[in-house]
Amino acid sequence: MSRLFWILMLVIGVGAVLLMFNDSAGNTLGVENDDFGRLIWLGAFGALIGAGLLRSGRPLGAMARNLGAWAAIALAVIAGYQYRYELQDFASRVTAGLVPGSPLALGIEDGHATVTLDKADNGHFEARILINGAPVRTVVDTGATSTVLTSQDAQAAGINPAALDFTIPVSTANGTARAAAVKTNELAIGGIVRKNMPVMVAAPGMLGQSLLGMNFISSLSGFDVRGDRMTLRD
User: Fold this and answer.
1) How far lies 102's CA from each of 126, 214, 226, 227, in Å?
2) What is the rounded distance in angstroms from the CA atom of residue 28 to the CA atom of residue 37?
3) Spatial separation of the C-alpha atoms in residues 9 and 2, rounded to whole Å
4) What is the rounded distance in angstroms from the CA atom of residue 183 to the CA atom of residue 127?
5) Residues 35-50: b if buried by 16+ CB within 10 A, e if exposed
6) Contact indicator for 153, 140 with CB cutoff of 8 Å
């Protein structure tokens, strides 16, 4: 093993000297210097692994199977990294089918986060948002002037409805409700996050489902509806 070590050191040393002498030329033995440097290191590393396998005394068939298994794992990891966005989109689509209101797709356009929603069976666009970290299922309601939470959802988000004064009339697509104004620490849907977003909390029993209203939608750079899909753009 000591002889192999010194041979490898000699190869690496010769390679380093060649790279230094050919730095201005940009290539060594007809190979780009960057590629030549990687070739030296990979060759030395491969030789070291090969020597270790040969010295282990294991049958060549078993070693070949192990190397094949590790190569398959490495290829799977590389493929997963290269297709990470497609896999994320696939996972989002599966989640959207299992959890109502979950984003159908998350993305980035011109450096800004986007969220795509699928129309629910009831004909409305639903969005599963996070209020102060707590999940809340909402209906996207362009007829609501403000985002309005049911008293149950507000309580889940750490807001105490019993301490609120429900004196503000709120217009929704289903009519007018009485509500109280509060401010959330954070409202998020996918990668779109708003800090200190004001919302309303409906009086107990006055609202069946929380609404994602125009005060949030108007904070976006844009949104559009195409068929059964709505895309929100930060």
Assistant:
1) 8, 20, 18, 18
2) 9
3) 11
4) 20
5) ebbeebeeebeeeeee
6) no
Residue 190's pLDDT is: 83
The rounded percent of the chain whose pLDDT value lies above 90 is 3
How far is 14 from 18, CA to CA, in rounded Å?
6
> pLDDT tens digits for 5-21?
677 677 777 777 777 77
Residue type at 220 in one-letter notation: L
- The rounded distance, in Å, linking the Cα atoms of 160 and 146 is 19
Q: Is 133 within 8 Å of 207 (Cβ atoms)?
A: no
Between the two ends of the chain, the Cα-to-Cα distance in Å is 60
Q: How many residues does the chain have?
A: 234
* Contact by Cβ (8 Å): 217, 140: yes
According to DSSP, the β-strands at 148-149 and 186-189 are: unpaired
What is the residue-wise DSSP string for 159-185?
--GGG----EEEEETTEEEEEEEEE-S
Q: Return the residue matching tokens 């590393």.
A: 45
CB atoms < 10 A from the CB of 142, how many? 15
Instruction: Give the tens place of pLDDT for each residue, 179-195.
Output: 888 999 999 888 888 99
> How do residues 97-152 score in pLDDT, each as one tens digit?
555 556 656 777 777 888 888 787 777 888 888 899 888 888 888 888 888 898 99
Task: Give counts: helices (H), strands (E), the chain.
Answer: 6, 15
Q: Quick one: which of 194, 200, 198 has its CA closest to 161? A: 200
